[in-house]
User: What shape does this take?
Amino acid sequence: MQSRRHLDVSIILCTLLLKIVGLWLTQDSVEERRRKAMIAFTLFSTIFATFVEGRDLYFTWLHKGDVLYVFTNILTVVMALIKIYIILMHKVEFLDLIAYMQDKFWNVDHDTNEEAILENCRRTCIFFISGVSLIGVCVMFSYVSSPFTAHSSGNESERLLIFNMWTDLPLSTTPYYEMTYVLQVVTLCQIGVCYFCFDTIFCIMTIHVSGNFNILRYRFSKLCDVHFQITEKGAQSILENHVRATYAKLKIYVRQHQALIYFCEKLEDVYTMIILGQVLMSSLLICLFGYQMLLAHAPPERRSMFFFLISGSMALLFMFTYGCNSVMDGSADVAMGAYSTLWMIMPMNKLGRMLRKDLIMVIVRSRKMCCLTANGFFPVSLKTYTSILSTAVSYFTLLRNHAEQSTIT
Assistant: This one.
């Protein structure tokens, strides 16, 4: 059973992405040194890309070039820098969440019905992680190949880079061009991985914690052994032992419920600022990507690049909000499982009354849904996704009207 989980495509992809960034659980001192080296390289890449794009924005503005294109690039880089900075601030808590998920979510034995719930979670994670990763690879390939496609359709004597460097160095001559191009490719790939790798592990965490809430609901609903209650109802001593065993199982399930709630609270502490940034920046980025794809006077290769970018942003945002919405629904459904327990056939002795009171407490606590918020301002759900898309369309309409008025004047 454990080997099947370790072969899960979503977990394999997410592990690979986090190892590229340098944030994963290590086994020995050698891996720890590699992890620190990868973190250092990731920080260098993000800071270097921010510096290059900042200079590009300044000189493009100065020479009245395509400012919106450069502004779109620098927003993407800044978003990746914010994510890696926040995760590094909560590095210990982030790695503890991964370790807890490995021990309690992935490497635990379940019965047939519980395994079916987890299998559905795995299929959902594979769909999201594979799709987002594929779009991310397409985006990076579009950027990497853009100098060659522009070269084939333009001046063949001009050697272009992925991003403008704005320097007096002879970067268009060999070997400086090759060295600069390789540096930009490596930096671009590292930025791209940083942009969506933390969202993929967030998706896995939210989907699996939601699945464990559903498993807990199922366990609550099957708390009482109906067949035993019917066949052994005449034996008072056996019935007392059964009620005592049922109450012992209830206490175990309550502890599991508390552990899941605590996991959601720690996940909220680590990701709340990232969620806020994702919500605030997504509408603007989707608007800018759509403008570059549909309205800007851009070559075809750049339009295809922004097609992948807008597709990736919408898919990433949907994955983000779907995970948050699943946590809300899963935590609230625990109340239905507790109420579905056949508490009415329990005897009205001391343990029976205690069991009923504790089930009421579980129901009351479950009514307060676990939710992931944007720094406490509002809970994130699928309604947030539609609101962000609506805002992005409004921004896009304003940009289109401005572009039409500029053309007329």
User: Anything to note?
Assistant: Residues 121 and 207 are 6 Å apart (CA to CA). Residues 236-294 form the longest helix (59 residues).
